[in-house]
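USER: Study each token:
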Amino acid sequence: MFDTLSDKLQGVFSGLRGRGKLTESDIDQAMRAIRLSLLEADVSLPVVKQLTSAIGARARGAEVMTSLTPDQQVVKIVNEELANLMGGTTVSLPISPHPPTIVLMAGLQGSGKTTCSAKLARYYQQQGRAPMLVACDVHRPAAAEQLSVLGAQLGVPVHREDGGSDAIGIAQRGIAAAKRSVRDLVIVDTAGRTVVDEAMMSELVGVRDAVHPTAVVLVLDSMTGQSAVEVAEAFQEAVQFDGVILTKLDGDARGGAALSVRAVTGRPIFFVGTGEKIDALEAFHPDRMASRILGMGDVLSLIERAQQNVDVDTAKDLEKKIMGGGLTLEDFLDQLRQIRKMGPIGQLLGMVPGFRNATKGRDLAIDDRQLDRVEAIIQSMTAGERRRPETINGSRRQRIARGSGTSVQEVNQLLAQFKQMRKMMKRIGKGGLPPVLGT
């Protein structure tokens, strides 16, 4: 996510680092590099001009020209202007004071609209709401079935009418069913097309006028870059949507859509999709996203993910075992699974401040498939071997390797790493935390 843009901007800042003062020429050169970086990231030209103009005006001001750390001031300015460009503050999806809240989902076919409807239901289900999904895509044969399968996974009811062709009627009856069953959030999945066309817009406007939604949400595929902005403008003209969900942001190394859509349409980004799993939807925070783009991490989002996915009691039990030197491979496997619930490892490390800079030029890419192999190795052990890995001799290592589809070398490597980790944990348990960590 934003890797290309992050690397380019880091190069710009590196060129400014260590200079006592910046000249007009230095700033002009930096602005040209930033402009080119944004264009290569697929940010629309008017937005690039708007952003670089704002950054340039501030960079030529006293806060940079007279600063003892001008490079840091430029980073601060770019960070703030990026956040402003994306809306400045977090905007939440509006919730009706008189339930149910009705959310009308719009977008092109292939943007991830149906999956996103289920993700949104899951997000608000976690917030204590009682959602219902309504399948109003009467043109794509598998749409209603897809929504039903996703709803069943979540335990969320889905209103569908097989063979129906009246999207407006289905939407109205779905909302009536939600009211009867006292559901306080109704998410209406509508039809999309491969391109913007009059028939799709006409049907969408008809559904909107019939159900009077609390919010119309446009689902945009961030992988389409500037095309996403053009789609947003077309929908804005036709249905006046209230906000955006950007999908597939984890697969877009450029990120131009995220930077452009708010500035072009004036509508906020409510959520971003960060993966394929049903829980891979997170609220959009402009300031946090700006920090990620600049390689400054996103500690707050990392903490929130940990709070949502890590069991507090399990963590406390683990702490006792660590302090007592009793950590086992079973404990290690439990912790690995808890961490993996938080999302792809590479994505989590990207939220750690300075990680990208510290590892630049080094091959530290962590593939989640490596963790699959670790999990397979541990699962191929007996319960006794997990509790007492020192009993695993040569023949047992061969058996574990065969059972996990890995090599004896990989089994040896895992056992050696675990042994080293347990030694370190035991030292910490006996001597207490080092002063820096304990403060």
User: Anything to note?
Assistant: Confidence is low (pLDDT under 50) at residues 432-439. The two ends are 34 Å apart (CA to CA). The chain is about 60% helix and 10% strand.
